[in-house]
Amino acid sequence: MRFLPVALLAASLSVLSSLAHTQGNAQAGFIKSDDERCHECHGADGNGDMGDGVGNIGKFPKLAGQNIDYLLKQLRDFRSGARDNDTMSIMAKSVNEPDLIDITAYYSSLPTMQGDGGGDKAKLQKIRTLYVQGDPARGLLPCQSCHGEAGKGGVDPGIPIIGGQHVRYLQKQLTEWRAAERKNSPGDIMRQVTNALSDAEIEAFSDYLSRQ
Ligand code: HEC
Ligand code: HEC
C-alpha cells in the first residue's frame, strides 16, 4: 500500500507529460520552423520584417509572443481555406499538425512583439479613447474588451495580441474584414466591428496599435 501514492504520482505525471506534448515543444519548434522556411518571412525572432527588400516591410505579421491557440487556429484556417492567402495556404498545407503545434509553441514562447512607442500624442490619445470606450451610438464595441489594454491580450487565448504588430499588416486585416474578404473570426465578430469604421479610423487604429 505504501507504493500506491507513488504509482498514482507516476500515472498523473504521465498524463501531465502527454498534455505538455500536445502543448508543443518550443525547442523542437525552433528547428522545425527553420526547416519549414517560416523564418524566411516571419524571422527567427518572430518579428516578421524579413523579406527581399523594402517592398515587403510590414507585410509579414509578427508572431513573437502571440497566443498559441490563435496561431494554431489561423494555420488550420489557412489549410481549410477559411482564411484566404495564397502563400500561407501552401505553407500551412505543407506542414503536418504535430509540427505546426511545435512551431506555434516556439513563436509563442518568444518575447512579445513591441512597437516603437512613438507617434503624435494628441492623435494617439483620440483613437485610444475609441479603442477603450467604443461608440455605443453606432454599435461599436470597445476593442479593449476583447484585445486587452493597448492590444496586449490577456482576455482570451483565442483573441490575438495586436499591440506592437506591424502597421501595414494591421491595416490590411481591418480593411479586408470590412470588405468581407477575411471572414474567419468567430461569429463574424470582426466584420461587425469593422463595419462601422471609416478609412481614417482604420488608419488611426493601425497606427496606434503598431506603436504599443
Ligand atoms: C513567403 C513568405 C511566408 C512564409 C515562408 C511563411 N509565411 Fe506565414 N504569413 C505570410 C504572410 C504574407 C502572412 C499574412 C497574410 C495576410 O495578409 O492575411 C502570413 C501570416 C501568417 C500567420 C497569421 C498571423 C496572424 O497574426 O494572424 C501565421 C500564424 C503564419 N503566417 C505562420 C507561418 C508559419 C508557421 C510558417 C512556416 C510553416 C509561415 N508562416 C511561412 C508569409 C509567409
Ligand atoms: C468581441 C470581441 C472583439 C472585439 C470587440 C474586437 N475584436 Fe478584433 N478580434 C477578435 C477575435 C476573436 C479575433 C481573431 C479572429 C480569428 O480567429 O481569425 C480578432 C482579430 C483582430 C485582428 C487581426 C489580428 C491578426 O493578427 O491578424 C485585428 C487587427 C483586430 N482584431 C483589431 C480590432 C480592433 C481595432 C477592434 C476595435 C475597433 C477590435 N478588434 C474589436 C475579437 C474582437
What would you note in describing this structure?
This protein has 212 residues and is mainly alpha-helical. The chain folds into two domains: 24-109, Cytochrome Bc1 Complex, Chain D, domain 2, CATH 1.10.760; 121-211, Cytochrome c-like domain (Cytochrome Bc1 Complex, Chain D, domain 2, Orthogonal Bundle), CATH 1.10.760. Helix content is 55%, strand content 0%. The model is unreliable at 1-21 (pLDDT under 50). The structure holds heme C (2 copies). Residues 61, 73, 141, 143, 145-147, 158-160, 162, 170, 173-174, 184-186, 189-190, 193, 205 line the site of one heme C (HEC).
Structure summarized in a few sentences:
The chain has helices at 4-22, 26-35, 39-42, 68-80, 86-93, 97-109, 121-133, 144-147, 167-178, 189-195, 199-211. The chain is built from 11 helices and no strands.
Task: Describe the secondary-structure layout.
Elements lengths: L3 H19 L3 H10 L3 H4 L25 H13 L5 H8 L3 H13 L11 H13 L10 H4 L19 H12 L10 H7 L3 H13 L1
Q: Got a strand count?
A: 0
SSE string, helices as H and strands as E? HHHHHHHHHHH
Instruction: Note the beta-strand portion.
Output: under 5%
Can you tell me the CATH topology of the largest domain? Cytochrome Bc1 Complex, Chain D, domain 2
Cα gyration radius (Å): 19 Å
Structural class: mainly alpha
CATH level-four homologous superfamily name of the largest domain: Cytochrome c-like domain
Low-confidence stretches: 1-21
Number of domains: 2
CATH class of the largest domain: Mainly Alpha
* Straight-line distance between termini: 57 Å
Q: Write down the overall geometry.
A: globular
Which CATH architecture of the largest domain is right?
A: Orthogonal Bundle
Ligands in the model, by name, code or SMILES, are: heme C
